[in-house]
Specification:
The structure is a homodimer of 350-residue chains. With 350 residues, chain A is of the alpha+beta class. Chain A has 8 helices and 14 strands. In chain A, the strands form 3 sheets. The first copy, chain A, has a 7-stranded mixed sheet. In chain A, strands 1-2-7-5-6 form a 5-stranded mixed sheet, with helices on one face. In chain A, strands 3-4 form a two-stranded antiparallel sheet.
């Protein structure tokens, strides 16, 4: 059959690429351009237009959040977890960033011919245990098998649905000048944990992934303040990319105080070894909260009282100056622009 | 890091396999064993226990159906559609088999480094157009990129949520002796359309995939009868596998009348060329309905009045004899057992 690709005119090229490159999956500018120029025109609708971690809509009288993520991490097992843990926590956390409690997950496995059943079994067990810890039910699933050489052992997609409590309206557009930026704990941990066991660039480190479900922490925050403005889990592209997206969505500037950024020494050391900036390294058990200044102290206290927020800290604020841009202030008073990365710094960390 | 796989004891081997083989993805007995012995113990919960095409549950006062499917078809474009069409219709149809109208879809792309942007764009366009035709909104998405040699151009996962109308209770367990088995049209079309363009075994044929959204047909059926007992779209493993699953779930026998099976001549010819039985070949725009005998005539008429059910036909009935088993009666009165296939007859057709 003759396939006529000429029917579809590519609205790109994206930075002169005519094929997919790793950077399109990095969560940075290239990912954004792929979504904006290729997927959005194809799918265009007002729900998707939000471009948040999860969609929020009314269905049958219920106010639901709905989200999906595919997981292609390598290696499949890493210090502190596995692709099974990521598959649950990633989607639970995306829902939590709308203030929703994850209720049900779907789970689609793409298995590569030849992968050991014991590996699949161990991952499924991790996934089931992670779901139990997060209090979410795996409701429906699917398994496909692809020929050897067309996968990488195990890929997993999860989608999740959850209820958004009445009165809660958490979305990036709500960041306002004067708002306070809080991070729930030490940053850069997940990405460095993955890199520490990557074939070819292994290095000795004690860093263990922070992969964890954040729905409990968010519930504790909502208990003291239903008017949280923005929540975001800084995964691919790290804190820098998440804050840039928020700044652009809301049309505000973000100013970080460098000395307040909670970077553990092990991460700082690994980053200088690898030539990375911890602000761009992925987290899988951390969140950024942007709240009104009057609420900041109470929200911070609630976070610090929760096991997953013990190291929570205020790291900056939203400002009227330089809308859409993130900067950090150094101890010497200098200001540095924290841009969105173009492509991929650490491939396939989730 | 030392990974201790010994913690997880494989409850298998499945037919002496210790690794995943293509048959585990075929939708037959090996797929069933993987789900039963590996995934179910890991995820065990009452919602998943149903093992139907979609899970049905209450959330926030709404009665929802939730389903997922990954799509790994090769080639990506085939006569009558593409992986983009399949990704929408597959999940819309799984929801429809619970009587639910799909409302929102999630969409996760796993792209292989090096795939042409124009291919991705064409697929996204197909996917968006298919969603519009089916009346479903793509609400949330995700894109990952994997290294060249670890994918096959494009894999897609979709999950969907929809509302189940009040009073509708459609599930395999409701098949009862005396019930009538209806098929919505000609069988075996999708699998043969894919095989006709498969590298290495191409053959000339006029067969075009039947890929279509069945939610409109199901709505037309529910308009005349809310008490449909079972619906199933016979995809992987075909009509034979779907009916075997239903027979086992309900503890009934199924008796098909061979002469009534609507097999188009092109499919029959291709099947004899390939050594296949049309009962085992996948469909992507057909459904099986099992209804009480008193409802059969009205449901059949409603189906035949719909464009996607014009060739609907009664093909057999549920019987008390041989529970869990499907048989066909030939024109000469002989009876043949129609078993569940063990592994994979046509790999990666969806």
């Amino acid at each position: 059959m003759a396939l006529n690709f000429e029917e579809w005119v590519c609205p790109l090229p994206l930075r002169d690429h005519t094929t997919i490159v790793m950077g399109h999956g990095g969560g940075g500018q290239m990912s954004g351009e792929l979504v904006e120029h290729l997927f959005m025109p194809a799918f265009a609708n007002p729900v998707l237009g939000g471009l948040t971690d999860s969609a929020v809509f009314q269905l049958g009288g219920a106010r639901l959040a709905f989200s999906t993520d595919s997981f292609v991490v390598q290696p499949l097992f890493f210090p502190g977890g596995s692709i099974g843990d990521l598959a649950v926590n990633g989607t639970v956390n995306d829902l939590a960033m709308s203030g929703a409690q994850a209720a049900y997950l779907s789970c689609g496995f793409i298995l590569e011919e030849g992968v050991e059943l014991s590996v699949v079994g161990r991952i499924a067990t991790d996934l089931g245990a992670a779901a139990q810890r997060a209090g979410v039910t795996i409701a429906t699933g699917d398994t496909k098998v692809v020929d050897a050489g067309h996968g990488d052992g195990v890929y997993i997609n999860t989608a999740g649905v959850g209820l958004v409590p009445a009165g809660v309206d958490i979305r990036p557009q709500r960041a306002a000048p004067g708002d306070v930026v809080i991070v729930s704990g030490q940053i850069g941990v997940h990405g460095i944990a993955i890199m520490s066991v990557r074939d070819g660039i292994s290095f000795g480190t004690e860093v263990v992934s922070d992969c964890a479900p954040l729905n409990g922490l968010v519930a504790a925050m909502l208990d003291v303040c239903t008017d949280l403005h923005v929540l975001r889990d800084p995964t691919r592209g790290g804190v820098a990319t998440s804050l840039n997206e928020i700044a652009k969505s809301a049309g505000v500037g973000v100013e970080l105080i460098e000395s307040t950024l909670p970077v553990p020494e092990t991460v700082a050391n690994a980053c200088s070894f690898l030539g990375l900036d911890p602000l761009y390294v992925a987290n899988e058990g951390k969140l950024l909260a942007i709240v009104a200044p009057d609420d900041a102290e109470e929200v911070l206290a609630a976070m610090q009282a929760h096991p997953l927020g013990a190291d929570a800290a205020i790291i900056g604020s939203c400002v009227e100056a330089h809308p859409g841009m993130v900067v950090t202030k150094t101890a010497f008073g200098a200001t540095r622009v924290v841009d969105t990365p173009i492509g991929e710094q650490l491939p396939r960390i989730c």
